[in-house]
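Supplementary Text 2. Reproducibility record for the structural model of the 268-residue chain.

All settings were left at their defaults, and a single model was retained for analysis rather than an ensemble. We include the record here because the model underlies the residue-level annotations in Supplementary Table 4.
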Amino acid sequence: MRALLALAALVLMAAGPLTPAPGPARIIGDGNAGCIAGAVRLPDTAPGMQTIRLSKSTFWGHPAVIGALQVLAREASAAGLPDLYMNDISLPRGGPMVGIHASHQRGLDADVWLDVVGAHPVLPLAEREAIEPVSLVRADGRGVEPSLWRPEHVTLIRLAATLPGVDRVLVNAAIKQQLCNVVTGDRAWLRRVRPWYGHNSHMHLHLACPAGQRECVDQAPPPAGDGCDASLAWWFTRLDRPAAPTPAGPPPKPPALPAACRAIMAAP
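Retained model, structure tokens:
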């Protein structure tokens, strides 16, 4: 356990400071290059939720985002779901997480595991290190695994997508397809559930820039409609194509952070 925590500390130090920048909450930049001052940390244990894999993860975000995640946990618990397993949000001052995420840079993004099976008793932090939620997606990528899919998955994703401030919820295309197939009645919230690479065992919540954050750059809103259309079908046509070769040479460098972010990273 100590070795894992030491390794995690080295990774985080390589990415940026280990403490939040002082002052009021301030978000700068866009999802590809940004940062945050005045971040607060998600509690490791709160009603309806537990953080997991502490040695590999970081849980800092804008106060509105931390509050929204706690509301989601309470609503999920009221709906009869087990404790939510919370994973990465952002580093204490944002910026890129080296070798982990390209996004999660501004305290506006959070990963929540799609594990709704059985009870989730509150575990000591050390025991949460070994939690590895199972993929809900079939090996061929063309649908969810029927033996693992539950109506509770619909409940959880709907609660996330209808949470105030949520701009979109990213899931695997097979999970989006399953929602398109089974959701009846009000389907308006499906617009905010978008397919993306991976995300076969967790959902990625992205919240819009909070009010008053003038240096925060929002992405374009999701297209109109429920997203159960040709744009979703495109993800499955990709499965018929041969895998693209891995480009030679070092990976491209991430975009440079805005000058204001560099000042935040350097602040004591």
